[in-house]
C-alpha cells in the first residue's frame, strides 16, 4: 500500500514541514550564538504552524468523502503527521526559551546537541521524500532517529545527574537536561509519524516494536520484501488486541499474526502445542515466533473454514448440524483421554466477582439493593453472590480434563470439505472443569444479537445437543454435581457477558437469566437430583 493523499493535503504538509525545518534550523543557529532576534523568530511563530495544522485537518476531512481515490488510513496518517509536526515546533519554542537560561555554551558542544538537531532535520527531510515519492519504506529510517535520541538522552541524563551531585553549574546542568528532554520528545513525535506511515504501508495500525517483531518473523519464513505483503485485521479480542492475516498481492495467506504480552503469547504457544499432541491438526501450526522484553508474537497457520458464529449468522443449517455432530463425538473422547483423577474447582463466582466492576460500569442498575415484586422479596446481587459462593466452594469437579478455556462459537472453525473441526485462541487452555467450556459455549450463542425465532431455535438446538453430550459423560463418570456446576457456569457467563453489550434490553435479558439461575440453585441446594432449568434459560 502507498500514501494516497489529495494534492491540497500534500501542499499543506509541505508548507508545515518547511515551517518546522525553518524553526529547527534557527534553533541550531541559536545553539552557537545567543540572539534575542533569533529567539523571537522561534518563540513568536506559534500561530503560523497551528494554522497550517488546522488547514491540513480541514482538507483531510473534505477528502474523506472521496473514498474511491483516497483511503481513510492515509488521511488519518496525514492528520497525525500534522499534529506531530506542530508539536515539534512547540518543542522548538520551549528549547529556545531554555537556551536563554544557559550561559555555559561549552556544555552544548560537549554533548553535541547540534548533531541531534541535525538528525531530527534529516528525518523531516525524509518525510518530504515520502510525500513526493510515496516511498513509505523510509518510515523505518524516521523511527530509527527516535532510538538514537533515546540513547542520547539516557547518556546525557546519567552524566548530568552525576555532575549535579558535585553542586557545580547547577542551573546550567538543569537547563541542559531540560533541553535534552525536549529533543527526546521531538524523537517521540518522529516515532509517531513513523508509525502512522507504517500503518499505511501495512494496512493497519502497528507500533515500531510490533513492526520489527513482524519483520523478523516474516524474514525467517523467507519473505524478505514488504512491497507485496499486507496485513488485514480478521478478529479482535475482548482485550482489544487485533489478530491479523498476513497475505501477498495474490491474496495467498502466509499466516496469522498474534501479538501481545509475552505471558499470553507463551500460553498461546503451549496451548497450540498441547492440542496438537492430543489431536494432530486440531490447532494451527506455529510458523514463526519472536519475543523481546515483555512483548511477544507468533505467526501461526491460517486455517480454512468458517467459525460456528459465522455459520449461525449466515443461518447455514447443514454445516452447523455437521459441525455440532462432530463436536459431540469428539469432545467426550478428548475429555476421556485427558482425564486426571484430581478434584478441581473453576471458582465460577470468583470469576464473576472479578469481572463484576466492568459489568456495573456499563450497567450500574444491575447492582440494585433488595427489591419487592408484590409480596415476593428479591435479594440484592451481592447477597445472592455470597450465598452462591458458599455452594461454589463445595461443588468441586471430581476430575480434571484438558479444556479450551475460551470455548466461544467464534473460536471453533469448521471446514466443510474435510469435515474437520479446528480450535483457535488457545491461550487459556489447561486442565480444568469441562463444565466451563460447555457453559461458555452455550452463553456465546445466547449473547448473539439475534432475536428472530429461527435463529434462537438454531442456537437452542446446538446448546441442547452439547449439554446432552456433556450430561451423558457426567453420568458415565459419576459426576454427581454436574448440573449444579453447570448452573454456576451459565450464571457466571450470562452476567459477565453483559459488559460487552450496550443494548440495555438484551443485556438485561442475559443478566436476569443469570440471576434467576443463582436463585434457582440456592432454592434447590438440598435437592439430590437438581433440575437444571435449561429450557427456561434458552428461552425458545
Topology of helices and strands:
Blueprint (H helix, E strand, L loop, with lengths): L6 H26 L3 H8 L2 H18 L8 H28 L6 H5 L2 H21 L4 H27 L5 H33 L5 H13 L8 E8 L5 E7 L4 E9 H17 L7 E7 L2 E6 L5 E2 H6 L3 H22 L9 H15 L8 E3 L2 E3 L2 H14 L6 E3 L8 E4 L4 E4 L6 E3 L1 H13 L6 H24 L5 H16 L6 H20 L10 H5 L2
Antiparallel strand pairs: 1-2, 2-3, 3-5, 4-5, 6-10, 7-8, 9-12, 10-11
Walkthrough of the structure:
The protein is 61% helix and 11% strand. By secondary structure, the protein is of the alpha+beta class. It has a five-stranded antiparallel sheet, with helices on both faces. Strands 6-10-11 form a three-stranded antiparallel sheet. Strands 7-8 form a two-stranded antiparallel ribbon. Helix 6 packs antiparallel against helix 7 (138-164) and helix 6 (113-133) runs parallel beside helix 8.
The assembly state of the depicted protein chains is single chain
Q: β content, as a range?
A: 5-15%
Structural class: alpha+beta
**What is the approximate shape?**
elongated
Low-confidence stretches: none
Percent in helix: 55-70%
Overall number of strands: 12
Radius of gyration over alpha carbons? 30 Å
Largest sheet features: 5 strands, antiparallel
Distance between the termini: 48 Å
Features:
single chain, 540 residues, alpha+beta, five-stranded antiparallel β-sheet, three-stranded antiparallel β-sheet, 19 helices, 12 strands, elongated
